[in-house]
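Session log. Operator J.P. requested a structure for one protein chain; no other inputs attached. Running the standard single-chain path with token output.
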Amino acid sequence: MKKKYILLSAVLGLGLGLSSCSDYLNVDKFFKDRMSLEDVFKSEDYSEEWLANAYSYLTGSNADVASKGHTPFCFADDMYFGDRDDFYKRLKNGEYGEGDQQGSWGACYSGIRQASIFIQNIDINEEFTPEEIADYKAQARFVRAYYYWLLLRKYGPVPLLPEEGLDYTESYDALSQSRNTYDECANYIASEMVLAAKDLPLARGPLSIARPTRGAALAARAKVLLYAASPINNPRPADTEKFTDMVDDNGKCLIAQEYDESKWARAAAAARDVIELNQYELYHAGIRETEAPGFPKTIIPPADGNFSEKEWPNGWKNIDPFESYRSIFNGQLAAENNPELIFTRGQNQSTEGINVLVGHQLPRFTSGWNTHGLTQKQCDAYYLNDGTNCPGKERELNLPGRSDMRERPTGFVTKEDVEAGRYKPLAEGVSLQYANREPRFYASVAYSGSVWYFLKADKEDNKGPKQIFNYRGGGNGYTNTMFWLRTGIGVMKFVHPDDANDNNSNDNGWTHIRKKAEPAIRYAEVLLIYAEALNELAGSYNVASWDEMQTYSLTRTEDELKKGIQPIRIRAGLPDYTQEEYGDPAKFREKLKRERQIELMGEGHRYYDLRRWKDAPVEEALPIYGCNTLMTEQQRDLFHTPVVVPSLPTTFSRKMYFWPISHDELKKNKRLTQNPGWTYND
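Structure written below.
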């Protein structure tokens, strides 16, 4: 038999969650020239390093939550960035090209190849126990399926490589692979996640927090099946957009052409699989009775006669909704102590990770970039604390049946208001447009006049609390540089009271920003998947659980919808939906979409949600409104009168549903077909 060899120094790198050490391996220290696959996989150390390399491609362009350098998909109609050579404008206007942001394609297929080789060869290892081999093989299977998921989400249908891999010594023509259909991709990923789940443990220790668990595999499966059931691949009969021109090299349509309601049932069952593990719950923080710097006393939501009278998990009587939400993202809560964190890369993030995201959110006061902000649309999406819309919600868009045409509140918080305890947590001088909002608003939105704490600032004079306004001429508002918020509204999500950068690094080190674990998949998303999928069922379905140990009877009922949506509302300190909203699928769908927009803001969902729902042609093309940032503090009434932001133009064209495949890949693989609207040639 011909022995296969591989140059190890070309493929071994940093692994995620396989060791507490974060240094890159110095492969020259370990390897001489060439080693056989047999030599590699008989060795415990080399086998672990091979798996580490399979993990390593999950960072950079394949991150789920990150700054925009490698992954600009955390920015859509909700969150924007104002630097990077106007790339946000090109992203929003569809002016990017076939060569832009293409690192993920090669990285995913490199990871797929490494994982496949590991799966095919690890059984020869005699230094691991059978249980260790099963776990490692399941990890490799998970990571391989996850790479396919990342490709499917971004590019649409992609080629599924043979299980045994490809002989890289063959010609490009011999190696060419056609694209599989969307359903083939989704079903393959789902089946691989089931196989992985069988041998993955329910939980990991603190030093292995970035390794997948059974819940991670099942939750990823639920995400994939939700997308496969969504309008992007499951068009209703009246839908005129079915992507009939997305075909393979033989003219076969890659997108489903007929509506199949049972896909929603499969997605609901997949989410139910995660729920039935009884391994996860939404994180909640107890009531804070006293004030401390950066940690305010709990603000009790208005009584609703229901949730306000009950203790967690049936109500919010004994929790702090603000801190419960904020702590998930800002590093206050360690990943191993977060009961809703299902899959994370932990702190194994690239130079564009969450630290850098926060560095671009921090105001100029502590040398933050001050360039990541929120749109007026996102600001308006948050409810008032009694669960109603804010007056003037999307008023400027003048959309019948959607825009709240009431006048926006005028006036500002006075010193007397603060002393009397009105409008908490707003400080003096803040617009009353931001008063009486739900807790997630205050954990996420850095409105003009927000209080920043900078508790770990280097300079004593810079330590907070500091109230930061975004008026022109005030240092953090409009300037002739790139360091200003185009809408006058910043982002507080992911920011910890300790975070500061007054050591003037501005070098992507962000050494004074607390480390945060990436929330790639959390339990709140699984609950929302369950509610969304159930809502689309007109009939009843019996679907086997992932391990075929039970059968779920799935029907759209108010009680089942509540299992998905009520925990989200309770943790947010908000009243329940009305019976009318539960009873009407169209109204519930509208509420569900808004709940995802709020709950998952900044976590890499909105960009893709708008596309899978086919809402992007409307939502991404609506003009972006924000504060009138040319106004000074003396003109603060005008500052808070929303205007169209000319530096953030918007449009949406059909080709923007799927990212283009690069010309280089099209040249290498002659059987690849391009996504609709994009070109084949340089």
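Operator note: Residues 369-382+406-514 form one domain.
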